[in-house]
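Justification of computing resources. Each target in the renewal requires a structure prediction run like the one illustrated here; the chain below, 259 residues long, is used simply to show the kind of job we budget for.
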Amino acid sequence: MSLVSAAPSEYTAPGVEEFWQPIIGDGAWAITRPIFLVVLSTGLVIWFLLATTRKKALVPGRGQMATEAVYGMVRNGIAKDLIGSKEFLKFVPLLFSLFMIILVNNFFGVIPPMSYPTFSRIGFPIALSLIVWVVFHVVGMKKHGFFGYWKSLVPSGLPKGMILPIFFLELITDLFTRPVTLALRLFGNMFAGHILIVLFITGGWYMLTSGGILVIAGGVTWVFAVVMTLFEMLVEFLQAYVFTLLSALYIGGALADDH
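Resulting structure tokens:
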């Protein structure tokens, strides 16, 4: 007897309903789980940073070491390298905040009882991407002037017939492609990872409780669920890092003398 023919017909695979879970109220004004988790993550980040830096010591404790390690990575490994040693410092608070908020909300996806990656809801990645989009355009125009900033989208030395097409291509990239891909990359990874983990866990449990040969398949499925969870933790860290890195890259590009 095949596993397909033995599979219970009552099981319903997880879908988009997993991402709409109101806590208070219903409809457009409901307080949903992702909204609650964003507020919770903000409070946790503020509390953790204050708790680990209030009493700074020459020989740091574990909390202070963790904070300094993350801050040093964002400050020196991202901001300084990609924006430049002259202007990077004023953007470190923004980049550090982005990294911490994204990392905590991503890790919520594998930490019970939250078990929900906030940025699997597209609105949150869009909001952060728009913040970055506004920042790198504003600082670019402030440094180069309004017309100088947009004029510099076209490299010097191009044939006259190529200037207009290249300008529009670069304009689309700066105004549309960068913020959209920045948001979709984070959203897509968190959405897909959450769906896969929920599928492995619920499907495995359903087979484990169905009896017969499906118990073996359910056990194997749960092993894969553990492996997927560990892999998802790596993806969650990398997505926070990549989002912060690309944000710094866009800001550095807007400030570059040859922008």
